[in-house]
Design brief:
Elements (H helix, E strand, L loop, with lengths): L1 E8 L5 E2 L15 E8 L26 E2 L4 H7 L3 E2 L3 E5 L6 H13 L5 E5 L4 H11 L7 E5 L3 H11 L3 E5 L17 H15 L7 E6 L12 H5 L2 E6 L6 E9 L7 E7 L2 E4 L3 H4 L13 E8 L2 E13 L7 E3 L4 H15 L6 E7 L11 H13 L7 E4 L1 E2 L5 E2 L4 H11 L3 E4 L13 E4 L3 H8 L5
Parallel strand pairs: 6-10, 6-11, 7-8, 7-9, 9-10, 17-18, 19-22, 22-23
Antiparallel strand pairs: 1-2, 1-3, 4-5, 11-12, 12-13, 13-14, 15-16, 16-18, 20-21
Amino acid sequence: MKEKIIYECGECGYLSPKWMGKCPNCGEWNTFSEKKEAKSGKKTAPLREKPALSRLAQIENREDQRILTGISEFDRVLGGGMVRDSVTILTSPPGGGKSTLALMAACQTAKQGLRVLYASGEESETQIKSRADRILGTIAENIWILADTSMDAVLAAIGEVDADLIILDSIQTFALAEYYPARAGNPTQTMECASALVQCAKNKARPRAVLMIGQMNKNDEIAGLRALEHLVDTVLVMEGEGTDELRDLTATKNRFGSTGEMGFFSMTEKGLVSIDNPSLYFITKRSREQAVSGSALTVLREGSRAVVAEVESLVSQSFSPYPSRISESMKRETLHTLLSILEQRGGAQLHDKDVVVKTTGGLRLKEQAANLAVLMSILSSAKDRPLPSDWAFIADVGLTGELKKVPGLESRIRELDRMGYACVVTAPNVASSVEYAHIRVEECRTLSEVIGLIFPRKR
């Protein structure tokens, strides 16, 4: 048996017969490493038993197919808990809280009497125990810890423990002996380890739930081949800097629930705490007498849920030839567009003003439904006149200054009605046929009409 030397890209797994400085597949530099490949005769795939065929109509859905972890926001993003024969991958930037969330899910699942195997290739047993003592309090008896990087040891431990839930932290740190000398983190090792877990999870005789933690690369994507995301059933992305209190969890792929569903957590000394009513978290509660200039309310759709959000603006005199336009919550190009609309269609003079826009709690303004609230917030600050604290603004604003309807308006207004707000300003002919318990709907055709409604001219 002869050995053949090839070169493999450490980022994407691309193979080349010679070393190259730049990978032609992923474009990364200096990622090729030498790999020896044994040359042998023609290989044949091992024989497998013929799988049994089933009629789709005759397959039964079991009522107990989901595992509820008891972490409300986590279960909701998953679509109602973890499916017993599913594979989920959770990723976030370093310090985002993915290991903390996984350990909390392990504890809550074990308290229900289910068996949990927590395998870590990054931390020792004492490090895991130290974190558990800090965030869990009472530790359930049904959690087993394996601190090793061998996937063979993990597969053996799964059978020994007979685990219902398997957690790996993280998948890029494990390796199968069969694929030596490829090191852990190599795309081949990562894919093969994940494939072994998928086969384990989807065993008809003994289905198990698998939660893998995935490392994130510098492009804010799961490290390794993109095929890893296609292999698993659910991809969860947790966002939030290590110093921020807010963490948001989003399902970018979910075969058992809604894609784009989002949950919110608050990072505390005791771990992650679910924010069950985010509409209270992302606003500053004020009475009419306490209203301040520069604050406007709107309603955003985060997944299937409507969330009341507060937009804050600060307009001040600029002392430079190029006034600043700063936004922590929206794209700068979008802010420039809205300022142009406000100047041309709303009559505001902002050419010599610095403008800063942000949201309470750091919520991102990804929807055009918030545009009217942003404009009214800026105008309120420029005039130094507060908006009514129990009013909200839900509409897109076109370049013509006309208000445009937004999707899901009824559910947004119902959230405001539930929270006890008095009035919502929106585009015309979109909500007149719906009756609400408390809130009044003001329909305006243009931005100028909204400004005239809120800031009537004195006679």
